[in-house]
Amino acid sequence: MRIAIAGGTGTVGRLVTDLVRRHGHEPVVISRSTGIDLLSGDGLDAVLAGVDAVIDVTSTASMSAAASIRFFETATRNLLAAEQRAGVRHHVVLSIIGIDSVEKGYGYYQGKRAQEHMVQTGPIPSSLLRATQFHEFARQMFERMKVGPFVLVPTMRSQPIEAAEVAARLVELAEGVPAGRVTDIAGPRVERMADLARRYGRAAGLPGRVVELSLPGGSGRQMRDGSLLAGTSAQLRGQDFTTWLRQQTGSDGEAKAQRPMGVAGIPLVRAPLPQPPEPSLTNARELIAGLQTAGMPITLTIDGDERRLPVNIDEAAFRALQEGVGLVLTRTRGVDAAATVRYLAQAVEIEVSHGPGRVTPHAQLSATLSRSRTEIRRLGGAVASGPTADGGFRVSATIPTPG
């Protein structure tokens, strides 16, 4: 096949170009650096001659709504018209998860919506893939958002994916038949963008202090509230940010904590407990691992078909786990505790317990999931607590999930 890549010199475009070549196809790079201008259309007819499919990963640095819409509409119009003249049979375009949710005000996403509309209503049979932000976005913060000694990063919950995974899916689509809007793809874990930027900066040795800013208006709120996370039907692919960062830099970028000490089996933590991860069950393992590193005697078991939950249920379940773990660990000293996440057919269940042992004087103040209870009940769920058969104690929460 002869496959053209519009935007073939960008972050994803370079990966797509290399992968097309490794799959035995002929890549054709469309960019201004190769003498082709999508905004004027110059050079498109010649370069698209004999092309079977086009993969469009074009982008613009502008955040202005007017400029973004103008760029994507002009570039897409010229590209589709040239494809039609050349007899191209398949147009594959990359877009972004959550752009339907973001209100008017975030200009780049308005441009992407305009691009999607033109492709879906255009003359060339198409496939449209939406993905979350890339792991590489953390590096771009240092390149694009550095102001003096500061790196300005919006307060944003994200579920980043490795750009190489996105490239692989785009090439896979181009090799097949036009499929319209295909299943979204995302990374395996929910993260906080400012945390990723800080870790990347530490791992890569980049200067600059990351400052997290909450953007105003509806678009800023939706960045914070999970509107840009993958839906329940999205396919989770690739490695998490930590694994990717180690491969890129040799470091995970985590701030090094002092080692915990213990006396008579009771852990004493020199440093503060680790900052909890973003509220998502995709981060349950990290939550417990951080506590274990700090010397807390707790284990985690995940039962059932682990799956992506709706954002509000996912967050409520994680907060129940987080509260339950804190509650159980403060009731005792040096007694083993266990946390369990059960994925049932139509519910998710959280249970945290500790075995028999001496309890603290404040144990009666920590007897139920008081902070999580209201939201869990609003979602149709229930909480419970009480002694176990062996003389220990347990708290639990059950939240119904869509069937």
Note the topology.
Blueprint: E1 2-6, H1 11-22, E2 26-30, H2 44-47, E3 53-56, H3 65-86, E4 90-96, H4 107-120, E5 126-131, H5 137-144, E6 146-147, E7 150-154, E8 157-158, H6 163-175, E9 180-181, E10 185-186, E11 191-192, H7 193-204, E12 209-213, H8 217-225, E13 235-236, H9 241-249, E14 261-263, E15 266-268, H10 284-293, E16 298-304, H11 311-331, E17 337-343, E18 347-354, H12 373-378, E19 382-387, E20 393-400
Parallel strand pairs: 1-2, 1-3, 3-4, 4-5, 5-9, 7-12, 10-13, 16-17
Antiparallel strand pairs: 6-7, 8-11, 14-15, 17-18, 18-20, 19-20
Helix pairs in contact: 1-6, 3-4, 5-7, 7-9
Explain what the structure shows.
The chain contains 12 helices and 20 strands. Strands 2-1-3-4-5-9 form a 6-stranded parallel beta sheet, with helices on both faces. A 5-stranded mixed beta sheet has the order 16-17-18-20-19. It has a 3-stranded mixed beta sheet with strand order 6-7-12. The two termini are 42 Å apart. By secondary structure, it is an alpha/beta fold. It is elongated. The protein has helices at 11-22, 44-47, 65-86, 107-120, 137-144, 163-175, 193-204, 217-225, 241-249, 284-293, 311-331, 373-378, and strands at residues 2-6, 26-30, 53-56, 90-96, 126-131, 146-147, 150-154, 157-158, 180-181, 185-186, 191-192, 209-213, 235-236, 261-263, 266-268, 298-304, 337-343, 347-354, 382-387, 393-400. The chain folds into 2 domains: 2-249, Rossmann fold (3-Layer(aba) Sandwich), CATH 3.40.50.720; 261-400, Histidine kinase-like ATPase, C-terminal domain (Heat Shock Protein 90, 2-Layer Sandwich), CATH 3.30.565. Residues 7-174 form the NAD(P)-binding domain. InterPro entries: ComplexI_NDUFA9_subunit, HATPase_C_sf, NAD(P)-bd_dom, NAD(P)-bd_dom_sf. This is SDR family oxidoreductase. Pfam families: NAD_binding_10.
